[in-house]
C-alpha cells in the first residue's frame, strides 16, 4: 500500500538547539551554532556563541528549554540575547576546527553604512495636482515648498538611515530611499 502524506512538508531538517546542546560538555557553553536557513539566505555569517543553555529534560524529544547567546547576525554583533527559536529543527554545531573561519568572516564584514537621506519629500504628482487645483479654486498664492512633506524614519536595530535636517534641496520620490 503506498504511503500518503497529509499536510505540508517541513522546511527544517536537522536538530533543535537543545538536542545539540544536551550532548555537549556544559550544554555547549562557548560553542558556536548556526541556523541552516540563515546560512542559505545571507552571504554574511550569522551565528550564536552560546552563553547558557538549559534544556527541559522532561520534554518529549528534548526539543524545549531556554537558551541565551552572543548573537552575530549578518556579520554584526547584537550582544547577548535570548534565543527564542531554539526548538526549530534547523540548527547545526560549528566544529571547533572551523570556528576560526566563522570568526574571521564576521570580523571581515564591513560595518553597515549609514544612509543619509533628505528631511523633506516631494508629494506624488497626482496629489500635487489636486493641491494646485484646490489653491486655484480658492485663489491662494503658493510656493514650491508647500508641496513637500517631512520624512519620518522608524528607528530599530536593523535600520541605519539618518535624516539630514540641514538639507534645503528637494528630492523627488523616485530618488528617495
Describe it.
The radius of gyration is 26 Å and the shape is elongated. It has two domains: 92 residues, no CATH class; 60 residues, no CATH class. The strands form three sheets. A five-stranded antiparallel sheet has the order 4-3-2-1-5. A two-stranded parallel ribbon has the order 6-9. A two-stranded antiparallel ribbon has the order 7-8. With 177 residues, the protein is α+β, with helices and mostly antiparallel strands. The C terminus is likely disordered. Helices cover 19% and strands 25% of the residues.
Name its key features.
5-stranded antiparallel sheet; 177 residues; single chain; 9 strands; 4 helices; two-stranded parallel ribbon; alpha+beta
Mean pLDDT score = 82
Task: Give the % helix.
Answer: 10-25%
Uncertain segments: 167-177
Number of strands: 9
Number of domain modules: 2
Q: Let me know the largest β-sheet.
A: 5 strands, antiparallel
Q: What is the CA-atom radius of gyration, in angstroms?
A: 26 Å
Distance between the termini: 58 Å
As laid out across the biggest beta sheet, the strand order is 4-3-2-1-5
- Along the chain, the helix and strand elements come as HEHEEEEHEEHEE
State which percent range the strand residues make up. Answer: 15-25%
Form type: elongated
Number of helices: 4
Structural class: alpha+beta
Amino acid at each position: 500500500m503506498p504511503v500518503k502524506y497529509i499536510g505540508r512538508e517541513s522546511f527544517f531538517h536537522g536538530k533543535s538547539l537543545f538536542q545539540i546542546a544536551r550532548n555537549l560538555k556544559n550544554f555547549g557553553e562557548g560553542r558556536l551554532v548556526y541556523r541552516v536557513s540563515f546560512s542559505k539566505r545571507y552571504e554574511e555569517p550569522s551565528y550564536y556563541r552560546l552563553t547558557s543553555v538549559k534544556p527541559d529534560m522532561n520534554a518529549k524529544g528534548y526539543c524545549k528549554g531556554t537558551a541565551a547567546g552572543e548573537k552575530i547576525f549578518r556579520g554584526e554583533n547584537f550582544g547577548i540575547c535570548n534565543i527564542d527559536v531554539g526548538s526549530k529543527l534547523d540548527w547545526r554545531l560549528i566544529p571547533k576546527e572551523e570556528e576560526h573561519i566563522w570568526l574571521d568572516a564576521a570580523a571581515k564584514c564591513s560595518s553597515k553604512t549609514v544612509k543619509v537621506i533628505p528631511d523633506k519629500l516631494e508629494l506624488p504628482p497626482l496629489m500635487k495636482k489636486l493641491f494646485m487645483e484646490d489653491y486655484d479654486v480658492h485663489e491662494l498664492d503658493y510656493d514650491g515648498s508647500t508641496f513637500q512633506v517631512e520624512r519620518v524614519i522608524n528607528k530599530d536595530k536593523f535600520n541605519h538611515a539618518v535624516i539630514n535636517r540641514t538639507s534645503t534641496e528637494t528630492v523627488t520620490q523616485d530618488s528617495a530611499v
